[in-house]
Design goal:
The protein has 10 helices and 12 strands. By secondary structure, it is an alpha/beta fold. It is globular and about 55 Å long.
């Protein structure tokens, strides 16, 4: 079997009781699991993946509750990274909205936002919460749009897809000229991240920076940025909590603008971020 990204040969093996296919050239892996097919996963995402209680606890407290804080930190880190690529005004399509932490922030900032989310509970709750935007229940593959977008945003979504290249080609078609796609996925060149990703029953693909670089070229898009981020140390996160309590958290962001992540060129990545321009 050929690698769907670079065309080289895929090698089957067993890893943590999972069957995986590995490309030794672009360092990507794909999980093959008869129990979790693309069709069965789609059904799981539709069937109350997010409970009303969890959504209320997070959204109504502006993600300040215990679980919501982690989502909020991830959103702030991703926005700090993305904002230099995003126009000051325009339309944003987010695919795989989840709790809506990113979509709600773009909505508050005045962007024309549209979200796509398979979970009906999340979709309905967000449509009651968004000021100007809307969230559509479904999958991008099944939807058609008359309008095009300035930005398409995918935060930890691509690793869940059976055919990511097909979906990303559709995203490209939905972009305006000079529009951008912003993507984040787990950095599976790090063995620890790879193990966690393969152990996640909802992850099908496990990417490296090289596989993402080739993926961008296959789309015929210009790569504006491709970087890996690692987690900041536990001691630094504890210090941040202390500084936040005494209103000095700006010290953290001055030293680490992408807190709780930081850029890395070592094999310790937690997340890959890619920005492509049409």
């Amino acid at each position: 079997m050929e690698c769907e990204i670079c065309g080289n040969i895929l090698n089957p093996s067993k890893f943590l009781n999972h069957t995986i296919l590995t490309c030794n050239f672009c360092k990507y892996h794909k999980t093959i699991d008869d129990k979790n097919t693309s069709k069965s996963l789609k059904e799981k995402y539709k069937s109350d993946f997010w409970s009303q209680e969890k959504l209320e606890d997070m959204i109504l407290t502006n993600f300040s509750n215990k679980q919501g804080q982690d989502y909020k930190l991830a959103q702030e880190s991703m926005f700090e990274y993305s904002k230099k690529f995003i126009p000051s005004k325009g339309s944003i399509l987010e695919i795989g909205v989840g709790t809506g932490v990113h979509l709600l922030n773009f909505d508050k900032l005045g962007y024309q936002v549209t979200g796509i989310e398979p979970d009906l509970t999340s979709t309905e709750f967000l449509n009651k919460t968004l000021k100007n935007g809307k969230c559509i229940n479904g999958y991008i593959e099944d939807l058609d749009f008359e309008n095009k977008f300035d930005v398409i945003f995918l935060y930890h979504v691509v690793e869940h897809l059976e055919h990511p290249l097909f979906m990303l080609k559709k995203c490209k078609d939905l972009l305006k000229n000079d529009g951008i796609i912003i993507i984040a996925v787990p950095d599976c060149e790090n063995p620890i991240t790879l193990e966690k990703s393969i152990s996640n029953p909802f992850h099908i693909w496990h990417f490296s920076k090289k596989s993402f670089e080739i993926l961008g070229k296959n789309l015929g898009m210009h790569s504006l940025s491709l970087e890996s981020f690692s987690r900041i140390s536990t001691s630094s996160r504890r210090l941040h909590k202390i500084l936040k309590k005494i209103n000095f958290s700006s010290i953290t962001y001055k030293n680490n603008p992408y807190f709780p992540l930081t850029l890395t060129d070592k094999n310790n990545g937690y997340e890959i971020r890619l920005v492509l321009k049409k």
